[in-house]
Specification:
Length: 525
Amino acid sequence: MSNESHAPHTAGATHPRTTDSHWIRTTDATDHPPLTEDITVDVAVVGGGIAGLSTAWELTREGGRSVVVLEADRIATGVTGFTTAKVTAQHGLIYDRLRRTRGGEGARLYARSQQAAVERVAEVSAALGIDCEFERSPSYVYSRDGAERDALKAEAEAAAEAGLQAAYVEDTGLPFDVAGAVRMEEQAQFHPRKYLLGLARDLTAYGNKIHERTRVTGLHEGSPCRLTTENGRTVTARDVVIATHFPVFDRALLFARMSPRRELVVAAPLPADRDPAGMYICEEGTKRSVRTAPLGDGRRLLIVTGETFTPGTVDVPERIERLDEWMHTHFPVEETMYRWAAQDNDASDTVPLIGPFHPGARHTYVATGFGGWGMSSGVLAGRLLAGTICAVKAPWADLYDPRRIWSTVREAPTLLSQQAEVGKHFVGDRLRTTHVDSASDIAPGTGAVVRLNGQRCAVYRDDDGGCHAVSARCTHLGCVVAFNEAERSWDCPCHGSRFGVDGSVLQGPALRPLEQRNVDGPEGS
C-alpha cells in the first residue's frame, strides 16, 4: 500500500549529533576488571564483540578450553553495540553473485552456514534462558525501481537453489509501494547486548575471565603465543583469536582487502499496529534498512538505517537530517528517540574472512570483513573458529578461509579500486589546503585540521571555548584524519580508525593514540 503523507520530522537540532544506541541504553553497564597480572590460558580472544564472545563461549562449552577475553573498552559496546541487530542469512543481493563467482556449491555453503548461525542464536538463548527479545521475522530485499525486477527474481531463484526459503514477491508490509522484493522466511532479530551479556555471564560462571579496559598492543606468534597489553602485562596462550572487527594486527595485510564504511541509524516509537512486520533493506542510492524492536505500551521502536559514508566524511549532520526526514515522511512515528552510527568492513570478494590469520599461521586466527552482517557472521565465526581450534573442520571452512588468494585475484578490480581510494586520501589529504587558517577560526563544538607551528594538527574547540590539539596523522598508516561533527571524533578515511577529541583510540585498526600537540603560539591563537 502507498501512504507517504505523515507528520513532518521533528529533528529539532540544527546540527544533530549521535547518541548511545537503544541496545546500550536499555542494558546495564559492565564492569569486568582490567588485566593486572600475567596469565596463561588455552585460548586468548582479543575483542569483546559478538565474534569474540561467541568464539570464547563455544570454546568453553563445546571445546572445554580455558579462555580469556581481552577488550580494549567495554564488551558489546563497540561495533556490536551499534548494530541494527538483524540475524539473517539474507545479505542483500548476494546469492546470485555467489552462484556466478563461486558456483552453486559455494552459494549453498554460504546459505547453510549463515542460516545455521540464525538457528544457533535461537538454540543458545533458549538453552541459557536469555531474554534477548528474539523474534522470528521474514526478511526482505526490496526495490522501488521496476528496472530491478529481473535482478530480484534472479536473487530469489539463487537463494532458493541454495536451500533457503526465499521467493520473489511484490507485496510487503511497507507503507509505500515497491516494484518487487525477495522475501526470506525463518529469519530473526534480537537485542544483541542482552544476548551477549548472557553469554558473558555463562562464560565467567565456568571459571573463565573477561578483562575490560585492557588494550592488546603486541602479538608474538609461536608455541605458545604471547600477547602484551598496554599496561605491560603478558598473556600466554596456545591459540589466539583476533576478533576486533578490523584486525589490530595485520600480518596478512587484510586491510588491503577490505574497505570501511559507516552507516547512520535513527529510531523512533511507532504504533504497534503500524509495524511493517518484517526486516527490510533497499540498496539503491543512499540505502534504507528498516526493522522494529519491542518497546511496550502498545508501541514498537522503528529502526531505520542508511546514508552510507566513508569514515572521514564531513557532512554527517546533514546525512542524519536526511535519514530522519525520510523516516518521518514514510512512517507515522513519534519524535526521534535515538540517532547513532555503525561501522562495517566490506571484503573485496564479498565473503567474510574467518580462519587462520595468514598463510604461515599455526595458532592465530581472525574474524573480520562481515560487510554489515555481523550478527549472523559473528555467531558463525564463533562456531567455525572453535571447531578449527578443536580440530573439527566445518564444511564451509574453506569458503571463509582468509588465505583464499584465488578469490582475491578474481576480485582484483574491486581490490584495486579500494586501494586507489586509500591512495587518494593518503596523498591528496596532505596536499589539500585546510579550510581554516588558525585555531581561532574554529567554532565551539567543532574541529578542523590546521597547520600549527609547521605541523598539521587536528584541533577541536570544546563548548566552553577551550582548544585541544593532536596530530592529524592516523597512527595506523599515517593518513590524515577528518573531524566528524555528529560524533565528535577524528576519523581516518583510509582504514576506518577513529579517535576521541583527546586523541584516544575509539576504533582500530590503530593501536596508539594521536600524539598531543601544543595549540599555544601565534598560529593557534
